[in-house]
Amino acid sequence: MTALLTVDRLSIATQARQLVRNLSFSIAPGERLGLIGESGSGKSLTSLALIGLLPETMAATGSIRLDGTEVIGAGERQLVALRGPAAATIFQEPLTALDPLMRVGRQVGEVVRRRLRHEGLPSSAPAVQTRVLELLSRVALPDPERLARVYPHEMSGGQRQRVAIAMALAWRPKLLVADEPTTALDVTTQAEILALIGQLVREDNMALLFISHDIPVVAGTVDRVAVLRQGELVEAGPVSDVLQAPADPYTRSLVAAARTFDTALGRLF
Amino acid sequence: MNGTAGSMPQTEGKMTRRTIPLSLIVGGVIVGLHLLAGLLTLFWTPYDPTAMVGGRLAGPSLAHWAGTDRLGRDLFTQILIGARIAIEVGSGAVAIGAAIGVTLGILAAFATRTLDDVFAAAFDILIAFPTLLVAMLIVAASQTASLFTAVLAIGIAGSAIIARLTRILAKRVLSMDYIVAARVAGSSWPSIVVVHVLPNIWPTLIVNLALQFGLAAMAESSLSYLGLGAPPPNASWGRLLQEAQGTVYTAPFGAIAPGIALVTLVIGVNLLADGLRAFADPTRRGRR
Ligand SMILES: Nc1ncnc2c1ncn2[C@@H]1O[C@H](COP(=O)(O)OP(=O)(O)OP(=O)(O)O)[C@@H](O)[C@H]1O
Ligand SMILES: [Mg+2]
């Protein structure tokens, strides 16, 4: 099977600094890849580069092929067409990822309407509303009809993240990118959101790029991991191999730190 | 940030209810009265504004609520007409200023670094010139003192302030995650402007536009005062103030009455805008 995403010798740099260097990895359709690394290692930048959303001040070199399209050097029109159907992203902070002045139902509705138009389906208000409610119940939000009418600040963090997931799902993307989607949430909510993402990815047969610095979280969610350190790939392979017998000293230290932390918390690895 | 999917913050029901802010009601009533008075003059005025209907410089009486001017014309009639002119000038100038200012501000916010710097510097330079001076220059350049040139001049002169504010507000919104999220979901820039940027800058912008309305009404008064505003027989409040100037000690009411009219309209518009902002911002709704 040809890969859905192939990143080949990707480098990202500002004028002053090299932020990501020679990064290569690929994701097959339906495959789940974890990208781990400490804070500042370039995980978020990589995820933005995949859909051509790097800040203006940065330049990317190398190659990123997403669903058959070369992203680096692509024009805005090509990129807009790619964002959504090919890849959708869930962000770390669910409050700021939603427009504070727009009712939740409308925010999801905007994406739904765009997709319906894109696919040449009727996009009347009732048609959109039906899909919005479907999506909200798919992400297990209670009482979707009421929640569709509230503003983001009137929801809990977990509920907001579910809305963000619903927006990502609205496109039925081939690749779901989740950039530390549970970092801002408490442990119980975190587990629920992870279970939800896992379930949705399986149901829709989406590929998943799961970014995190929380190793136990990654371990339970993905098939393969890639370890990033200061913008460079240090190790990659199946979860069990990399996390149980890390080859690289850096990975070893990450795993050891996670283990100590977990023992202290009494969590099972 | 606690809570699972099942639990809702308790404040939710209260926050969603649309309580109408007091300032919206008070401001609405004041502006509404001015508006009614202005509209009324299109069909009816207590007296002919140009006719000598009483003694010269008479004080307020039952027949002449605001007294008469030095030609014996009814002042209350002229103040009512002045309300219409002030509202025409205020809303006209704000509409022109907002159309130019918001467009330029949004363009600047989306522009590349260098172009944005040029925009920003241009706004700052324009703002450094007093609005009134710019308006005077525009009126002088057009060589006709009419109500329309006054409105146009005040609108253009005020647009730089609106442009600068729009640029700053829009840039802040554009740096938010939900803009990235919208782009990730395939939104194009025009739809981001309409769906996210304008609604999010509007609550702050509206207050500024109200301020601009007040400034425009006062700027017209100043232009009229200098003889550059609406020419006679347009009884703008500025011209009334100017005419009352010579007799301010003997007949103070000639200056006080249009002054009160101007101040109440400006206050009313500001209250209205503040109320609208509170109403437009769901996170502030229900708070006073
Ligand atoms: N807009 C920017 N301009 C310049 N440098 C940036 C910018 N954004 C990020 N960086 C730098 O790029 C590096 C990688 O950032 P990135 O956000 O990808 O880290 P991360 O791995 O996602 O970290 P975290 O786990 O904290 O989210 C950091 O050193 C950061 O300082
Ligand atoms: Mg990050």
TrEMBL record, chain A:
Residues 5-255 form the ABC transporter domain. GO terms for molecular function: ATP binding; ATP hydrolysis activity. Pfam families: ABC_tran. The keyword Nucleotide-binding applies. It is a peripheral membrane protein. One of its GO terms (cellular component) is plasma membrane. It comes from the Bacteria. PROSITE patterns: ABC_TRANSPORTER_1, ABC_TRANSPORTER_2. The keyword Transport applies. It is found in: Cell inner membrane. Keywords: ATP-binding, Cell membrane, Membrane, Nucleotide-binding, Transport. InterPro entries: AAA+_ATPase, ABC_Ni/Peptide_Import, ABC_transporter-like_ATP-bd, ABC_transporter-like_CS, P-loop_NTPase. Belongs to the ABC transporter superfamily. PANTHER family: DIPEPTIDE TRANSPORT ATP-BINDING PROTEIN DPPD, OLIGOPEPTIDE TRANSPORT ATP-BINDING PROTEIN APPD. This is ABC transporter ATP-binding protein. It comes from Rhizobium straminoryzae.
From TrEMBL, chain B:
GO terms for biological process: transmembrane transport. This is ABC transporter permease. InterPro entries: BP-dependent_transpt_permease, MetI-like, MetI-like_sf. PROSITE patterns: ABC_TM1. Gene3D superfamilies: MetI-like. GO terms for cellular component: plasma membrane. The chain crosses the membrane at residues 20-44, 92-111, 118-141, 147-166, 178-199, 249-273. It is a multi-pass membrane protein. Belongs to the binding-protein-dependent transport system permease family. It comes from Rhizobium straminoryzae. Its main location: membrane. Residues 83-273 form the ABC transmembrane type-1 domain. SUPFAM superfamilies: MetI-like. Keywords: Cell membrane, Membrane, Transmembrane, Transmembrane helix, Transport. Pfam families: BPD_transp_1 (PF00528).
